[in-house]
Design brief:
By secondary structure, the protein is an alpha/beta fold. It has two domains: about 180 residues, Glycogen Phosphorylase B (Rossmann fold, 3-Layer(aba) Sandwich); about 140 residues, 3-Layer(aba) Sandwich (Rossmann fold). Helices cover about 35% and strands about 15% of the residues. Helix 1 packs across helix 12 and helix 2 packs across helix 3. It is globular. The model has no long low-confidence stretch (mean pLDDT about 90).
Amino acid sequence: MSIARHILVPIQTLNGGGVEKVALRLAEAWIGQGRQVTLAIGSREGPLAAEIPENAACIELGDSRYTALLRAMPRITQEAAPDILFCPGNHYTSIAGWTRLRLGRACPPIVAKVSNALTRRDMGKIVASGYRAWLRLHPRFVDALVAMTPGMADEAVAAMRMPRGRMHVIPNPAPRHGAGEVPAGRYLLGVGRLAPQKRWDRAIAAMERIADREVRLAIYGEGPERTALERQARALGLSDRVELPGYVADPSAAIAGAVAVVLTSDFEGVPGVLREALAAGTPVVSTDSSVAVREIVASADQGSVVPVDDADALIAALDHWLTPGRIRPRPVGERGDPAAAYASLFDSLVPPTPSI
């Protein structure tokens, strides 16, 4: 059997995104298996720079723009000569498509992971139509597609018309658990970038209406919406109950100590923070932002899933879990070895070495 000894992974920035964080965790595991990993990085600046595996080879462009990585990837792939090109999320598949177009048969097999919803509520009709057409091109340049749950795999087959035999279900690796700081008192916790997709404004607005006037809300993450969210909290008189500490490398202790973990996104892929919360026995309150959410929150005793734009349902769910004495979920154990599953998939795609 052939072995994928060398894996190439594009990463645009290290600003703290979940896709990139998981990619670095997988890269470390593959290196631990004795494989070579090369990271093609637009810019090494950012909090995730500290998480680059020690033995990973890094090719840094010094340019954080997506177009820079897009243009450079065919050349990098040709020079690095990897056995596999791994795209860690939807964001990177246009880079894969361009690399395949430029290199043709010289391009290594491409494995891409579905990291975000393929049905986008935030798009207008014209943009959504173009996006659907783009998704249907993926079977032409992606050799294997990985979804993190069966529901997302079904969505990918339907949206991309990807042959079922080229679809694989592999969960993200479990995050490391450390002993970080936790917010004071009783608190709700959100974890994710301060980006429009996440709609943290919904969580902040809910704080004005929930019955518990003492509980606090902490949102761990950084991004372009910080100023708007801080302005919202001030306008609602919630500055003393809402805190935005910024990016936190290891939020596991805060997740374990929260009354509930909150996710108020418009759309998601497979939200890792929900899995981590349930692994810690912390209930979750999430919008129905992905087919994967109800796969993760499998029963009402684990948390509440509410419609995306239903503020009343969100508040009712928060009030439910904030009720004193509410029984917390039983911790959900992790199963399998995702890095090994990926490695087995990579090996299956590598052409056999010709016999002499």
